[in-house]
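Researcher: Please translate sequence to structure tokens.
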Amino acid sequence: MKYGKKVMLVCTAGALLGIFAFANVKAQIGSPSYVVIEIDEMLDADAFAKAVSAAGPDATLYSGGRLIIRSAKPIALDGAAPPSRLVVVAFDTEEKAKAWRNSPAIKELNAVRLKTTKSRSFLVDGVPN
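Model: Translation complete:
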């Protein structure tokens, strides 16, 4: 009987430890963050395309970003007209998204984007996984 109580105590302690460890890992992961870029109008498509090509996908990949949406043909389902282009980049954390935004390559690309398009960008939190 004593042996059974010890086994039960060890199992209970292990289960509690597992629950706390899982909760701690979950808390460290946090919510994903997304950078959304809406381009309503191209003022100088050639200059914009050149800047995008110069930055390339590596500037996003090295910062931990994943290109989720890159569309030149959003379709309105209801409401106001959609932007002419839509880009969504996913990051594991808000800090990674902000670091990406502050990287030299993306700062340069955003400066060109703001001069060559009518657009806006914003950061949003995603739903925790």
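Researcher: Any highlights?
Model: The longest strand covers residues 33-42.
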